[in-house]
Amino acid sequence: MMECKKALTETDGDFKAAEELLRIKSGAKASKAASRVTAEGVVGAFISTDGKAGAVAEVNCETDFVAKNDDFVAFAKNVAEIVAKSNPADLDALSALPMASSTVEETRKALVMKLGENVTIRRMARYETSTGKLASYLHGSKIGVLLSYTGGDETLGRDLAMHIAASKPKSVDATGVNPEDIATERRIAIEKAKEAGKPEAMLEKIAEGTVQKFLKDVTLLGQVFVKAEDGKQTIEQLLKSKGATVTAFQMFVVGEGIEKKVEDYAAEVAATIAAATKKD
């Protein structure tokens, strides 16, 4: 409201000129904020009413306080919906798509101006299916999962999505695991075995056992289902019992991989006091 009042004052009450001024200031404010780290935020999710297209999108801001703002949360949900319905090729294409009476990018800039923080759309994922099913799950607003599967019912889909959020597998099966990660596990296992004095003839067998355990831990099919009544049933066994398969999944964790700036307020206060003392 204050920004609007200032704009009207500067333009002598000309509404059209004030609107143009606000748009200009919005762009300038967004540009200034663009360099600030956005490691907080939310994940938005959307699945079409026919269940054939769905998307998840991570939208970031600077503080957890803004991440809880209703307008910010609504923006993330709208972004996910637009991704699901319009299937943009990349984030640039997404930014140019219509949102409300403007575009996604203009809406983002307006949000930056309103909230006073940098707002960024970090990543998105979309699935579409003609014969299968889609499921999504949001753990609070910080972890979002989108799942594509066949067979089973909606309860199974939600259980699988919840399991992924809880256990964080890297891929559906071993074919999706980075070969470098497997090589690293094998190399470490061999070096550990050598340090323990194991015979040379046993090293490869020990390494293979370690790799297989690693793959069970990081692949969806190899993991023990979090709701398994016997504490042993794997996702692969669960799917087999339901006549279902998992085609693909995507999980976003807010801020994952972003280096956060650590504020040392004690040191900052001490430096301020020291500087003031020198002046005296």
Describe it.
The protein is α+β, with helices and mostly antiparallel strands. The protein is 49% helix and 19% strand. The chain has helices spanning 2-10, 15-33, 64-67, 70-86, 91-95, 104-115, 154-167, 179-195, 203-218, 235-242, 265-279; strands at 40-47, 53-61, 98-99, 102-103, 120-128, 133-139, 143-150, 245-253. The strands form three sheets. Strands 1-2-5 form a three-stranded antiparallel β-sheet. Strands 6-7-8 form a three-stranded antiparallel β-sheet, with helices on one face. A two-stranded antiparallel sheet has the order 3-4. Strand 1 (40-47) and strand 2 form a beta hairpin. Helix 1 packs across helix 2 and helix 2 crosses helix 6 (104-115). The longest helix is centred in the N-terminal third of the chain and has 19 residues, at 15-33. The protein is flat and about 85 Å long.
**CA(first)-CA(last) distance:** 43 Å
Strand order of the largest sheet: 1-2-5
Low-pLDDT stretches are 28-35
Helicity range of the residues?
Answer: 40-55%
Q: Largest sheet at a glance?
A: 3 strands, antiparallel
Overall geometry:
flat
Q: Structural class given helices, strands, pairing?
A: alpha+beta
Mean pLDDT: 88
SSE string, helix = H, strand = E? Answer: HHEEHHHEEHEEEHHHHEH
| Proportion of residues in extended strands | 15-25%
What's the alpha carbon Rg, rounded to whole Å? Answer: 25 Å
The quaternary organization reads as single chain
Overall number of strands = 8
Number of helices: 11
Secondary-structure map with pairings?
Layout: H1 2-10, H2 15-33, E1 40-47, E2 53-61, H3 64-67, H4 70-86, H5 91-95, E3 98-99, E4 102-103, H6 104-115, E5 120-128, E6 133-139, E7 143-150, H7 154-167, H8 179-195, H9 203-218, H10 235-242, E8 245-253, H11 265-279
Helix pairs in contact: 1-2, 2-6, 4-6, 8-9
